Amino acid sequence: MLIIFDLDGTLIDPAYGVIKSIDYTLEAFKLGFLDEEIKKSFIGPPICDSLKHNFNLTDKKAKEVTDFFRSIYKEKFLYEAKVYEDIPVLLQILKQSNNKLAVATYKRQDYAELILRHFNLDAYFDFIKGSDFDAKLTKTDIIKACLKEFDANDAVMIGDTLHDKKGARELNIGFIGVSWGYGFRKDEADANDVYEIIKKINIMKNNRID
Fold first, then answer.
1. Which of 64, 110, 119, 197 has a C-alpha 20 to 30 A away from that of 55?
2. Single pTM value for the model
3. Looking at the structure, do residues 194 and 142 belong to the same domain, yes or no?
4. pLDDT at position 67 over 60
5. In total, how many domains does the chain have?
6. Which among 8, 43, 9, 4 is positioned nearest to 158, based on CA atoms?
7. Among residues 77, 98, 121, which one ends one of the domains?
8. Of 34, 68, 78, 79, nearest to 53 (Cα)?
């Protein structure tokens, strides 16, 4: 089975670094104040979309602000994140069970690779697909690239937001929503810890038609 993971809010919690980068950006462009909950909503979706939505920026201005944010984030705060509890254990178990593992993230490709390497998670993954530099790919596009890489029909997407769920549904693959990220409450999620993910995947495998 191909198991595809989202990155931010699923494998790692990037909140501190992202929020500090937002603060730098708001100050640099005199964009005003955002409360902490709105700042957290920037985690996951393309940063350019979040900026346009919250500040009514033109495409040109949003790109300028996004480029600044990315520069600050990479230079100062890229590694200001933490791996969620028991994620390495989960990845090891799934890998030992002969699954293929991939990452599908809105994070830019080079950032995703750097972060996974920094936290010693990269070795678990057979394929990493991030966003393009212009952030034009949808989450469906990114997940689809993972499926194409393995010519996979038997796959599941694991993520923490509606973007992840929508992409999985559009591509007709399984989806497991996790509660520890930034999209689903515990009563909305499919898994509240990594061991529930393992149970869900085992059920999917047992129910599949070969």
1. 110
2. 0.92
3. yes
4. yes
5. 2
6. 4
7. 77
8. 34
Q: Name the domain boundary from 41, 60, 77.
A: 77
- Given pLDDT bands bounded at 50, 70 and 90, which one contains residue 9? very high
Distance in angstroms (rounded) separating the CA atoms of residues 77 and 16: 8
Q: Nearest to residue 17, comparing CAs of 82, 103, 107, 104?
A: 82
Q: Bigger pLDDT: 46 or 209?
A: 46
pLDDT at residue 210 tops 70:
no
Q: Which two tokens stand for residue 131?
A: 């966003």
Domain at 70, CATH number: 1.10.150.240
Residue with tokens 């909950």: 37
Which residue shows structure tokens 């990037």?
Answer: 14
Structural domain harbouring 153: 2-13+81-207
- Integer Cα distance of 137 and 41 in angstroms: 19
Residues acting as catalytic residues? 6
Contact residues for 162 (Cβ-Cβ < 8 A; gap 6+): 183
